[in-house]
Amino acid sequence: MRELRADVLVVGGGLGGVAAALAALRAGRTVLLTEEYAWLGGQLTSQAVPPDEHSWVERFGVTASYRALRDGIRDYYRAYYPLTDRARRTRDLNPGAGHVSRLCHEPRVAVAVIDAMLAPYRGSGRLTVLQPAVPIAAETDGDRVTAVTVRHHGDDLVLSAPYILDATETGDLLPMTGTEYVTGAESQAETGEPNAPGTANPANMQALSVCFAVDHVDGDHTIDKPSAYGFWREYQPDFWGARMLSWQTPNPRTLQLSTRSFTPNPDDDPWLVDADQRVNPGDGNLWTFRRIAARRNFTGGLYPSDICLVNWPMIDYFEQPYVDGPPPAEVERNARELSFSVLYWLQTEAPRPDGGTGWPGLRLRGDITGSADGLAMAPYVREGRRIRAEYTVVEQDLSLQVRGDKGAVPYSDAVGVGMYRIDLHPSTGGDNYIDVASCPFEIPLGALIPQRMENLLPAGKNIGTTHITNGSYRLHPVEWNAGEVAGALAAFCLDRAVTPRAVRNTPGLLADFQAHLSADGVELHWPDVSGY
């Protein structure tokens, strides 16, 4: 088999993987980067999820490279899209005027910007990107990973590097390498978390979602009736309070049944959208909630309709776990059938405000999501495998109810910051939402250090969190921050001929590494702000 080698191997090209690769490359190292799907960027691109971010993102609370990504997306719109003068002039352009984030945009724009950020390193030969490539096996020698085999265009390639970073969406390298990991919900006896269950359930994981984009135009764009539509049309989980295919859903924060609205192309003013999660979660009108193109931001009638990204409660698939359960392809297939059923319901039976039913003018925009079947290219994976780490972040580290005005626990080994409510979607164990106010928190280096393995590092959602705290640490800027730190740590260890464990546990090395991160634009601590 063909063999390739670099200083750092990053398996998985989602947000964490891209950030890890960039950090190692900036440090002068060579990198092999693999990705399963046609687009780099993971949840931001192939999974089609607009960025979930905190309220201060425009001023602080993200790394400099993540800010460069956000700025690049806005600059791309200014360079290539026919924006209105007002949209072009605004510093904090929100192309979709969605309520979930101050930067809602089409996935392809992020793909273009990520590719541009990596382009100089590909041109120089320091970065090799293998796409599509799926890890299928790994070799180890004691507490070290020596090689990972990936399948790339039908061929098996053996990839090796002194440092191996697992940036896959579900922590695929952990079982392959024998790295100790956990899945699902830990018990309260193990973690002490107020919202942990009495008994651990490794199969209890957050819902999987297959997102999709739609617009609303003239004509009948109704899809063929999905084969499982009859099942999903009548499906009502015990805890839901209504059929899933309805406008009634539990309020994530109160669990009271609430009624959502849906008004295609409401002709609202994009400048009146205040995407601030402290004030309003923004999910009242599902059309504008995650809108990724607001037609009034563009000139000349270029967009006949807004484009709405569907990542709503009714597409959450929690019948089967995606990890360490049934074949993942089966789970994804069933989740896709649910998403198609939701779309068909919207087109044919969903109650309209005027008393009618269905919007046949809703048009599936697979060209926006880059997929063959019209849905997102990849499923949105909220929760996968997590390493058993030197330090595991628990709920009482950041819960606003527990910590109050003391703020989140400060870590002496802080290597980044993040902020998001502890936001758990309904899970495969039959749990309803768990939505807990959080304090702005730090990322401890100990959460990136496996208990035993020496040269394998997590670089995404697989860091040392629990089922509960994964709900805060899984979002876009935190995944990027974790990946960036993993890439920087691998390069730092190569430069100093030390191990990641030594960096964390040697005060002088830790101080040097934290100084390196700060100089590279990684914020280690928050200013004085309050949680929500």
UniProtKB/TrEMBL annotation:
Recorded superkingdom: Bacteria
PANTHER family, from UniProt?
L-ASPARTATE OXIDASE, SLL0471 PROTEIN
Q: What is this protein called?
A: FAD-dependent oxidoreductase
Q: Which organism is it from?
A: Paractinoplanes lichenicola
